[in-house]
Amino acid sequence: MSVRRWYLPLVALLAVGVALRVVATVGFWPAYIANPDAFSYLDAAGGDLFKYAERPSGYPFFLRVADWGLFGHLPLLVALQHVLGLVSGVLMYLAMIRFGASRPLALVPAAVVLLTGDQIFFEHAVLSEALFGMLVVAAVYCAARTLDAGALPWAAAAGALLATAATVRTVGLFMLPLLALWLALTRPGRVRVRLAPVLACGAAALVIVGAYVVAQRDATGFTGFARTSGWSLYARVAPFADCSQFTPPDGTAGLCEPGVPSEMRPGATFYHHNSSSPAWRVFGPPPNGNSELRAFAREVIVNQPFAYARIVAKDTLRYIDPDVGRYRAYNGTGPGGLSFNDPNPEFLPRSLEQIRLHWHAVSFHDRFGAVLRGYQDAIRIHGYLLPLLVLLALIGLWPATRRERAGIALMAGLTVTAVMVPSATLFYSWRYLVPLLPLLVAAALLGGYALLRRLRSEPPR
User: Fold this and answer.
1) Would you say residue 39 has pLDDT above 50?
2) What is the pLDDT of residues 69-109, one digit of tens each?
3) CB atoms < 10 A from the CB of 12, how many?
4) Torsion, CA 322, CA 382, CA 345, CA 37, rounded to 10
5) Better pLDDT: 32 or 416
6) Using CB atoms within 10 A of its CB, is residue 457 exposed (0-12), middle (13-18) or buried (19+)?
7) Cα 325 to Cα 323: distance, rounded to the nearest angstrom
8) Given this model, what pLDDT does residue 1 score?
9) What is the SS3 assignment for 396?
10) Are 249 and 299 within 8 A, CB to CB?
11) What counts of helices (H) and strands (E) characterise the chain?
């Protein structure tokens, strides 16, 4: 009886999710390829995987493997990304069950993956979010399995998956220490028992990260993970950097803008990606001058800590309201800039050319893009809901069971990392949060249900 009652709703959700993805494919094709990110991913996949220093190469590698395995059919690539989304929904459901949620409660974060317009859009686009999100959710599921017997293989799998996610989006690298700490704190017993899953997780992650570093060194000569970390940090501080408050490090005086007040400067994406920015004029394109830019950015942060804290706080709050703070050009992308919109005329021909070099020819069509845009605008986790979700997760830590508390801490922690790291080291973009939204919803549900149970004086499941 319970199988018929609670598994059939999951099947129904999957069916609706499949239908929505079919509608997206029929109604708007191909989605969001006319932009610099999609162009660079396609270009790197067809040539040098490490050509674009500012982007990790995991997603171009995925595109290359998909090209081989799918015989160059772009519709099959998009279908594969839609399958990744469906798999993420199922794994989200299973992880919630492992963290102690009831089956109807576990359906809600699965529905966030399967039904929301943002998720469907990113699966439908040539962007890294669908792959990154699936890897993170899979890592969370494997981590949830470590709460039961046989923790070591699951801890190793979680570490490997999160390390692989880091090769797709660099923020995954910052999530690995959180996972290791979580594994150490959630396992009962002596120190040796606690450390064993951590070591298994770390060893598996080290293999993945090490292989990526070696491959990048062989291709570029750079030994490390991120070749433009200095560029990113410089872009973060350039909109407010005031060289009158510190002495610029050697070779970086040309980065100063004494005649341009901070309120007149563009946003961080200009300083990182635009060839007219001071960094490009002084050092040329990335990754040139990466260490000098890092040194300059550190001086800015040390000598202007309050200005740095303000801009980080503003970009963090923009996930709730994209209009927080003064408007700047080149200041990141909100939800409205990531949708089933008309193609960018500048990049559409270039992206189509890249596709035709390595995939079978495709043509653009927009049969009912307006309907898809309306659906995406309506059916999403809106920014104004984020404070409520965070509050429920935090308050729920107090009455939650050990298993529920573990789930809240891991899923909310990963979401906060995905938001705070870009805000502190790069810039705001709605796309950074979307793959983690199911985890935040799941953490809030666990916390909210634990709080409700406490208020009703009900025993835990």
Assistant:
1) yes
2) 776 778 888 899 999 999 999 999 999 999 999 999 999 99
3) 11
4) 80
5) 416
6) exposed
7) 6
8) 41
9) helix
10) yes
11) 20, 2
